[in-house]
Amino acid sequence: MNNASQSISDQLGRPVRDLRISVTDRCNFRCGYCMPRDVFGKGYQFLKQSQLLTFEEVTRLVRLFARFGVRKIRLTGGEPLLRREIEALVGMLSALEGIEDIAMTTNASLLTLERTRALKEAGLDRINISLDALDPDVYARINEVNTPLEDVLDGIGNALSAGFSAVKINMVVQKGINEEEILPLVERYRHSGAILRFIEFMDVGNHNQWKLDRVYTAREIVALINGDYPLEPVDPNYQGEVAKRWRFRDGGGEIGVISSISQPFCRGCSRARLSAVGELFTCLFATSGFDLRSLLRTGQDDETIAGRIAEIWRNRADRYSEERLAPGNSASPDSRSSKVEMSYIGG
Ligand code: SAM
Ligand code: SF4
Ligand code: SF4
Fold first, then answer.
1. CA 123 to CA 115: how far, in whole Å?
2. Cα separation of 63 and 20, whole Å?
3. What is residue 334's predicted lDDT score, i.e. its pLDDT?
4. pLDDT tens, 166-195?
5. Ligand 2 mean position to 218 CA, how many Å?
C-alpha cells in the first residue's frame, strides 16, 4: 500500500485526525496537577534513553498514521524541549506526505530566541505555551521550581516574534489556587496576537489530588472575563474543535475555553496519543496502551504495523469524560485507579 489516505472509524464513528506524541516523560517543572513532587521527586524512575522511540521510529509511525487520515501532529511530553535536537524531528515530520500541521506544547522555559527560530525553520507551524500565573510567587507555587518567570515570558515573546501561524497560551485554572490570575493574563495578552486558552483542571493520572470542587468551570471563567472585557461567541474553526471560542467585542483578539470536565467533548474526539516508548493510547484517561515499539524493533513490515494501528482504532470506544458525567457517576477521581500519567502519555 502507498501512503494514500484510507479513512478509518472507531466504534462511535470517529475518524483519527490528530496524533499527540510524547517525546519524553521528563520535565524541568513539577506542576502539582501533572507531576507532583511527592511522586515525581528524588528516586522516581524516569525512562532510559534506549526505551524512547528514536526520531526515525517516530517518523515511521507518523507516516503510517498519515495513511489513515492523521493530518495534525503535536509534540509534547513531559517537556519536549528537553529532548535533544527536537528540531530535527520537526524537520523529519514536516517532510512527510499528508502531514499538514505540526504543533508543540511547552512550558517555554527553554524557548530561547535561537531555539524558537530553529523550530520555525524546521517546520513547526504552531506553539502552545503553558502559563498559569503572572504573579511570580503564584507561578512558582504551581510549578514548584525556581525557574524565573521572566524566562517563560521571554519565551512567549520569542514565539510571538517568530511568525508561527498561531501562538496559544494555556492556563490550567484551579479553584483557590490561581483564578485570580485570569484577569491579569487577559489584560497582558489581549491585543498581543496570542490566543489565551483556559483549561479546566482535569482528573488525569492518579496523583494530582483532583477533586470536583477544585474545578473552576468554563462557565465561571467566561463570566469572570466577560464582566471586565465583554465577549461574544465565535463559531468553531472545524467540527470537533476542543476549545470553545470567544472574542473580545472591542477587537482585542480571542480566547478559548476547554471544558473537559463540565461539558465533555468525546463525541468529536479524533485524537490518538503515542507515549515516549511507543505505546498507542486511544484516550487521555486510558489505563493502558498498545505497544507499537515491539513491532518496530522486531522487524515487522509497514503493512503489519499499519494493520495493527487500524485494528486498534477500529476497536476504540472511549468516552471517559462523558461517562464521568453520566447520571449515577459521582465524578469520583477513583473511578479508574490506574490511569496513565499525563507526563507519560503527553498532554
Ligand atoms: N510540559 C509542557 C507544558 O506544560 O506545556 C507539555 C506537556 S503538559 C503535560 C501539556 C499540557 O497539559 C499543559 O498545557 C498542561 O497545563 C496540561 N495539563 C497537565 N496536567 C493537567 C491537568 N491535570 N488538567 C488540565 N491540564 C493539564
Ligand atoms: Fe512539566 Fe508540563 Fe507537566 Fe508542568 S504540565 S509538570 S511543565 S509536563
Ligand atoms: Fe477523547 Fe478520552 Fe478526552 Fe473523551 S475523555 S475527549 S475520548 S481523550
1. 13
2. 14
3. 46
4. 999 999 999 999 999 999 999 999 999 999
5. 21
C-alpha cell at 130: 503553558
3-state class (DSSP) for residue 150: helix
Atom of ligand 2 nearest to the CA of 77: 8
Nearest ligand 1 atom to the CA of 22 is: 7
What does DSSP say about strands 231-234 and 244-248: parallel, antiparallel, or unpaired? antiparallel
HEC profile for 201-249?
A: CCCCCCCCCCCHHHECCHHHHHHHHHHHCCEEEECCCCCCCCCEEEEEC
Weakest-pLDDT range from 6-10, 93-97, 259-263, 265-269: 259-263
The reported pTM is 0.95
Distance from C-alpha of 309 to C-alpha of 61, rounded to nearest angstrom: 9
N- to C-terminal Cα distance for the chain? Answer: 32
Are residues 333 and 30 in contact, defined by beta-carbon separation less than 8 angstroms? no
Place of cell 471560542: 245
Please answer whether residues 39 and 207 qualify as being in contact, where contact means their C-beta atoms are separated by less than 8 angstroms. yes
Distance in angstroms (rounded) separating the CA atoms of residues 60 and 96: 10
Whole-angstrom distance, CA of residue 102 vs CA of residue 198: 21
- Count CA atoms closer than 13 A to 151's CA, side-chain side: 13
Distance CA 262, CA 264 (A): 6
Query: What is the position in ligand 3's atom list of the atom closest to the CA of 268?
Result: 6
DSSP 3-state helix, strand, coil percentages of the chain (rounded to 5)?
A: 35, 20, 50
Alpha-carbon dihedral 51, 22, 103, 62, rounded to 10 degrees: 60
User: In the structure, which protein residues have their CB atom closer than 6 angstroms to any atom of ligand 3?
Assistant: 264-266, 269, 271, 283-285, 318-321
User: CB-hemisphere CA count at 13 Å for 26?
Assistant: 13
Contact 87, 7 (CB under 8 A): no
Question: Mind listing the pLDDT tens digit for each residue in 242-276?
Answer: 899 999 999 999 999 998 888 888 999 999 999 99
- β-pairing, 166-173 vs 126-130, is parallel
